[in-house]
Amino acid sequence: MRIVVGLSGGVDSSVAAYLLKEAGHDVVGLFMRNWHDTTGTLEGDCPWYDDQVFAELVAKRLDIPFHYVDLSEQYRARVVEYMFAEYERGRTPNPDVLCNREIKFDVFLKEALKLGAEAVATGHYCRRAERIVDGRSVYSLLAGCDPNKDQSYFLCQLSQEQLRYAMFPVGELLKPEVRRIAREQHLATAKRKDSQGICFVGKVDLPVFLQQKLAAREGNVHEIRRDCARLVRDIAADDYRALSEPYAFTVRDGKKIGTHNGAHFYTIGQRKGLGIGGRKESLFVVATDIRENVIYVAEGDSHPALYRRALRIRPEEVHWIEPAESMAEGERRCYAVRIRYRQPLQQAELIADADGLYILFDTPQRGIAAGQFAAWYDGERLAGSGVIDR
After folding, report:
1. Same structural domain, 174 and 34
2. Rounded to two decimals, what is the model's pTM?
3. 199 an active-site residue?
4. In terms of domains, do 129 and 260 share one?
């Protein structure tokens, strides 16, 4: 089988290519450049040209063809512009999820097919399963075997057609095993550090990066005390609609304790970047008001303003890996859910309502942020996901 591997210049995709070649496949390496601008990029974070050099070294070591493609125009249009638009609305997007759906398993996949690919492989720590239902293949997305590296969350928006072509060769392995294989095969990426930050952009100073499109605007920071009246909400434990409503603070609910450079640069649950010290416990962002340009913060990660028991996803934003599993209006199901990468799975009930899909958690969740993705699991299988509306 001819398999095109997305060689990123990292150890995971390198080992994926090695495993596939060892299995007897016709392997081709394809490196994609998705970003040119260095605005806001922090120094020392392995720029893209280093990634390409390492990817070429791996291809040479494995004796496989190597190709290069520039997808920066599509990446800016489909991922970065989406980021700017979401932050401008006071929401917190996840560019890595978008990159996988819009670039790696769409635009990149099409480039791979031009090279004669029958499948596309990446270095993601997750797995794909296939079964036959009524004579056709149905694909499932499974968590990676390494609980510390499971990346299924980042692939939560993939479709059946995208999974049809996807292969994840390192999904059955633990990270130390991947490193060991890379060392034994003398791959140039064996000791290379894992990438961090925004997919294909790297670690950035987010406000500086966003100021390419979003202007800085000074505003006030107000602290919400634990005895704030708005924190006392007499809501029934099963009233998922009311429980999903974010706290709506006003400047009268707290006192001014500082200033900021733009409410759209901050996200719910954020701790760093406030520049306000002298506290026993850290300050956390609990709400932002984009129109009035105000940030509301609270002291301590146990502050009630940080927690909610429910969230809502708009009907058009609900995505099922296997569409046949879609919920009918009025239906309720129990799943394990996470609202951010690496968060331990949380028990919750999904409720299909006329105005969207509600997720009612067994316990209050910290830092529910609009724009992020909620993903729900049935055991090790990722069943679906959606963009958090509130």
Report:
1. yes
2. 0.92
3. yes
4. no
Tokens 């924190």 belong to: 231
User: Higher-confidence residue: 95 or 173?
Assistant: 173
| pLDDT one-digit tens code per residue, 180-231 | 999 999 999 999 988 765 555 555 566 677 777 788 899 999 999 999 988 8
Whole-number Å distance between alpha carbons of 257 and 278: 11
**pLDDT greater than 60 at residue 349:** yes
Burial of 268-287, coded b for 16+ CB within 10 Å and e otherwise, reads bbbeeebeeeeeeeebbbbb
Split into its structural domains, the chain has a count of 2
Catalytic-residue membership of 126: no
Q: Could you give the CA distance from residue 106 to residue 100 in angstroms, rounded to a whole number? A: 8
The tens digit of pLDDT for each residue in 165-192 reads 999 999 999 999 999 999 999 999 999 9
**The domain spanning residue 318 has which CATH number?**
2.40.30.10
Active site residue: 46, 99, 126, 145, which one? 99
Choose the final residue of a domain: 180, 209, 238: 209
Segments forming the whole domain that contains residue 43:
2-209
Distance (Å, whole) CA 292 – CA 150: 39
187 shares a domain with 57: yes
Q: 156, 199, 228, 334: which one is catalytic?
A: 199
Q: Are residues 63 and 176 in the same domain?
A: yes
